[in-house]
Structures are given as structure tokens and as C-alpha cells.
Amino acid sequence: MIDLNNWQEIDKNHVWHPYNSLPSKSKILSVKRTENTYIILEDDTKLIDGMSSWWSAIHGYNHPKLNEALKAQVEIMPHIMFGGLAHEKASVLSKYLVDLTGLNSVFLCDSGSVSVEVALKTAILYQKAKGKEKYKFLALNNAYHGDTLGAMSVCDQKNSMHSLYGEYLPKHIFCKTPTLSFDADFSEAIEDLEKKLEKYHNEIAAFIFEPIVQGAGGMRIYNPNYLKQAQELCKKYDILMIADEIATGFGHTGKMFAVEHANIKPDIMTVGKGLTGGYMTMAAMITSKEVSDAISNSEIGVLMHGPTFMANPLACSVAIASIEELIQNNWQEKVEKIQNIFFEELANAKDLKLVKSIRNIGAIGVIELNDEFYAQKIQDYCVSKGVWIRPFGKLIYSIVAYVISEEDLRKIVQTMIEAIKFCEE
Prior knowledge:
four-stranded mixed sheet, alpha/beta, Aspartate Aminotransferase, domain 2, seven-stranded mixed sheet, Aspartate Aminotransferase, domain 1, 13 helices, 37% helix
């Protein structure tokens, strides 16, 4: 039998953590349990979760409605293959996604990266169904769309960890990113986008982008009007638009989906993270009826992708509960309050010598430093004060659950700023 009293030693010797070595070169904290918006460590240290479990636990942890959804479903049907079979929970969840996005056709899959893979494959199949051989994609500099091979190929290949894979990745086309700021001038980026579309439109299947907020590529917030003009250009050159809403969807930017800031509807959307409230791994690709009809009515006829755990009933059930919880409980009011508190508290960091810039939108608050030297020191300081954040590079940031208390949210930001001041001493 395995000695469970020594599980941390097993972790140290055998468990390969994300973006890490084995054994880990950075400190790994042992978690005993979670409750509401808190992480309780093995030594009973209580941390306010400033990361909402990589942006997914939008209702906090151990939510009674989500717990009940899982408990009820596990007694009925924990899993069933989706090839040739259907079940109620998948249908109900799909209808919710159709109603929320205004799109028509839902493909339920395993994770955010997989949903991007499916979106890319779908765009290629759509072009083939229209009699066009178009296999390249247009993406933004600083983009991040996931860690699987296809997703990596549309991530920024110069400024991300994916550059390590070099010539193994397909070569796609990248254009300038809109200038930082919700109301910044974006004319240079639009000009570059049009140049790339004009030159390569006969090769490009789709333009993929993270709407309004580029996540892991720099937490970059940009002007929604860029997407309005981008949509006009994509229509002009007959290019599909893929909105990657995995990080931004389900309220993180103050809208249910970030494309709503620009009042546009993409041809394809990917969603994940908050879809199940952080309970189960699940994502979805959603397309317009035009896209699904073009493929389905062509000689191709089918979408060639079929994950084993596609439309898992447990994941569908908790996703339905998560969406219903959002709809029924004033999520917009909660996120607006979070945004205002971030705005107020982050202003206290703007004059610190280590700080390059501050920015926030919705449930997202970001401090960008001048360099990445202090990231681990800042994380350690925050943990010592009862706050869990996970900086990457120069970015010290927090994305919180919508149910977080005002007191805890203020403590998160104040502790981040204290940590930066500590590094300045």
C-alpha cells in the first residue's frame, strides 16, 4: 500500500508540475482543502485565493449548488461515450451556450487547448468545403492560445515558451498587437492587419484572437473598436474570425463574453475555464450555422474529432449549474464592484519605482513591473501574508472569484503592493 502520510515526498519525486522541472526548482505548496475563496494548506495556513484557480473558480470553491449538481449526476450517469449516443445534460448545456453566444453549433471537448485545436481544424474544413485550400492562420503578436501543438503554433513564437519547439511547429502569420489601453489609438495595428490580409488572404483560413484581453502573453487590455474594424476587414477578405474566450468568457471582463465590448459576433468561439466553475475539465467550440452547414453539407460531411470524455455528463451537469448560478445572481453587479475596487487600490502602485504600468478590467487586476527579477520574491511575500498569487514574468496580477469579499479583495491588492515595496527596500 502507498503511504499517504508521505504523499508530499511522492509529489517531489514523481509528479511533474506545469511549467516546472522534476523535481521542482520552485516551492510547491501542499493543499489540504478549499472553502469559498480560500486555500487551506497542509499546515492549516489559510490563503486568500487571488488566482481563482487559474481563472476558473468564478463562484469560489465548494459551492453548494455546484456540489449538488455533481452529487445528483454521479448517481444517474457519471460517464457515457458521445459517439452515437446523446444525453440530456449535453443538450441543455449546448442550448445555454447557443443562447448566450448567439452562435448555433456546439462541440463539447476536454480542455481549452483542445477547443482551440478543434477550432483550427474546423476553420480548415470550412475552407475546404468552400473549395479553398487554406491552411494558415493569422494571429496577434503576444498571443496565447494553449499548450498543444496546434494551439502553440498560433501563440507568439518569439516571446513565449513555445519558441523552444522551433521548427517543429507550423509557421503561421502574425500581425501587430493593438496598443495597450481600452481607449488607445489602434490605427497602426489595423493597418498591419489589413496589409497581412491583403497579402496572404488566399492562404489564411481564419484570424484567431483573444478579445479585449490578451492573457498569458502579457495581460494586455486593448481597445474594443479594434475588433470592430478587424471584423470588417475579415469580411472583406472572406476570412473567418475565431474568438478565443477561454480566459475572458463567463464574465471576467464585465461582459458575459469579451466580444460584447465590441458588439461583434465571431464565426467561431472557444470557451473553457469558467465553463464548469472550476470543477471539471471541460471546454467547447461554438460556431455559426453557416460554418457547421458548410462542412456538414459538403463532401467532407463530418467534423473529424472525438475525445473519449467529450460531453462527460458530470462536467455538463456542473457547467449547467455554473451558468445558472451566473444568470440568477447578479454577476455583472459583482464584477463591476470588483473592477472598481481594483481601480481604486491599484492606483496606489502607479508611482512605485519598480512598476511600469497598472491596468484592470472586470475581475482582472494587473501590475506590470520593469523586469521579472522579483516575481518569486513577491509571491513568497504574499504567501507569508496570507495571499495566494502566481506571478509570471513581469506581471503581478490577480483574477478573483466573483463572490470574493471586499475586505479580501482589498487585502490581495494591498499585499501585492506591499510586496513590491518590500522588494524596493
